[in-house]
Write a structure and sequence with these properties.
Layout: E1 2-4, E2 10-12, H1 35-40, H2 44-54, H3 59-67, E3 83-84, E4 93-94, H4 122-132, H5 140-143, E5 156-158, E6 161-163, E7 173-175, E8 178-181, E9 187-189, E10 194-202, E11 207-215, E12 218-228, E13 235-236, E14 241-245, E15 255-262, E16 265-267
Antiparallel strand pairs: 1-2, 3-4, 5-8, 6-7, 8-15, 9-14, 10-11, 10-13, 11-12, 12-14, 12-15, 15-16
Helix pairs in contact: 2-3
Amino acid sequence: MTTQTARGRRRATGPAPEPRPVVAHTAERPRDVHRDERRHRRSPFRQVTDFAAASGVGQKAGIALAATGLVLTVTVPVTSPVMASNPGGSGALTAAVQPDVTAAAAAKVDFNRTAVTTKGDPDGKLKQLLSAQSVGTITRAASAGTLGAPLDQLVTASPFGYRVSPITGGAGEFHRGQDFAAQCGTAVHAAASGTVTFNGWHPFGGGNRVVIDHGNGLETTYNHLSSASVQVGQKVSRGDVVAMSGTTGASTGCHLHFEVMVNGDVVDPLGWL
């Protein structure tokens, strides 16, 4: 039996009912064997957005594609193969496979050494410089460093140009090359690859002389030598020993007189070394 209060609530007049007993469930619930598979399975919507982000399309673009409900397979051209697949087997996403690059059996691949112009191939740089333009128009900036040193150590004893003659003492003598200090018997090296065109006595003061033709009007000469180890017509490479320094001819002491000739005219060797 209950009574009605003034505020509309009912108050129990009888004894309170017995509380329900708590039943402990000790039995283990049956395991859902497909739960892990569903947890790792991605929906087609998730596949498209993940693949779009991985391939550079952008997540927003992937969401827009997936939202239309029309795109389940996306092919994106990339620089390397990208593969995204669904373990469930449906909605597989694959990128375009790059085709193999092949050449015909008769194709010719030219690895011409003279075309290499790096610092590791100075002869290639020199040949390209000489063939690109007339040797007489080559600037000092372009020619600098294209010839190798004729001695292991270059110590200037007398520069190129007008000077006081060490033989006569007269002023205004034109010195045709660079004199480098060197003890007699020091190895003299070819400044670049070429062909020996002269090996003998120079009647105008050069003493024992060797001349190497490097092509396209460029020549180098080595003077006052004590001996030479090459013959006319011989091919030499940059750095080969061609002679030994000396003091023959119009010389006041052991040294090397080195000349660079362009179309038969001497130029300052320092513009090429």
